[in-house]
């Protein structure tokens, strides 16, 4: 249940006040979520800023709750430093979209000041420094800062906080109140600073969310409710944009987000590389963990840049070109959400128009992660491809939650990524939902699948005893071949699979597998089965050494 505000407001932002702030901010964003979505016209009119901010705050709240739970029995309780760091870390790992990523960096800036536990400092002065650091770090995280956005709102709040702190009796509540009032005023001015907002007659959506967060901060410290919800602008459908907007509407077609483990030096090079690939580049974080957000036309290049820099994971690729053309606030009729085990597969499915969730082999995503993917798909109807038998229960639970939100969802029981590729190949977004689901289900069911893996230890299998280091060929989930080399085992698996017929072989190569293997297997198939075609893809990091599909 939401944490209730304390009857007696604290004199400073201690651990309990941080928890109250988190709860109030999440509630405020929840109330304003649809209104903020409705005025989202910049940088992309895809009507999801309110949702992205809410999900980011939700992730931050979960991490903060976990920090309190971990120290529930500790004598000293949860310190402010631990609380603000957990709050910021949760936002970092769960940041959604451009606005959520910037909010995560704002919270990191606050944590960088308050997380040091400085002794003897006036609470008001300390909070002002935290809000100033937050604005500075947010500006630094954005490759090309634009005024009239939530950055402008953050800067105005920081300036007002500094002025309030300079007053002799400036308490933490006074500072928070001054920041909140200045943020509201700055938000009201955003239509005159950013042309696209002025034409639409709305305030900046991200700035609107930030006002809600700052209002919650003031409420946590003062015990008083904000006089009104954030300025909303005109939450009404917009007309088709006039001709001057044409260039803005033709921006990059994909949003790519991933967490990245990398050094500061590698991230500096990554920023430069991604800046040349697209726009809306925001890289937040530090201390070896970063959240990368960018809009590009080539999602594969964006992911590859992350691979060069370090270890990217939780890769999310969203296609929003269609949403741009449909206009703000209008959902797509149908979308596909695919769970995939490798970065290359995520890019492949993303380029085919699917919203992807990257889950390394052996891991199971949280229900919330799949629900988030369904929301990001922004469609009335969604086809969900779980990609593994062990993921069906999670997919079913996510589908039930999405249905409660009014989305029609069908889960196709794909047991392998290659079955998902087969289903995606016949996906018809313009046909009826039922016919599309039947066709995709039939294509997946008609695809036999195999996987090659390396045995980690001696074990009994359905094909006999294997030793550590043996190559295992699994067909439809069962070990069918035990070999000593990848090539020989793959050929034996193909021979068994093609023995019952087939028209198309799909090979998905793991990150360490050379192209020569694909060439050898293609020649093997062509020699023994002249009528069978072969296609090869790179699975990328996290994928198995080799996936095989036979249709």
Task: Write structural notes for this entry.
The protein has helices at 15-38, 49-70, 80-94, 97-114, 123-141, 150-166, 172-193, 195-200, 205-222, 246-249, 264-275, 299-309, 321-326, 343-351, 367-377, 392-404, 417-425, 433-445, 486-498, 515-528; strands spanning 254-261, 278-286, 289-296, 311-319, 332-340, 355-358, 379-385, 408-411, 448-454, 459-461, 464-466, 471-475, 478-483, 504-509, 533-538, 546-550. Helix content is 50%, strand content 18%. The radius of gyration is 26 Å and the shape is elongated. The chain contains 20 helices and 16 strands. The two termini are 50 Å apart. It has a six-stranded mixed beta sheet with strand order 13-12-9-16-14-15, sandwiched between helices. A four-stranded antiparallel beta sheet has the order 2-3-1-4, with helices on both faces. A four-stranded parallel beta sheet has the order 6-5-7-8, with helices on both faces.
Distance between the termini: 50 Å
Strand arrangement in the largest pleated sheet: 13-12-9-16-14-15
Helix content: 40-55%
Which structural class matches the secondary elements? alpha/beta
Whole-number mean pLDDT = 85
Instruction: Please count the beta strands (DSSP E, at least 2 residues each).
Output: 16
Query: Major β-sheet, in short?
Result: 6 strands, mixed
Roughly what fraction of the amino acids lie in strands? 15-25%
* Low-pLDDT segments: 1-7, 231-249, 325-329
Cα radius of gyration in angstroms: 26 Å
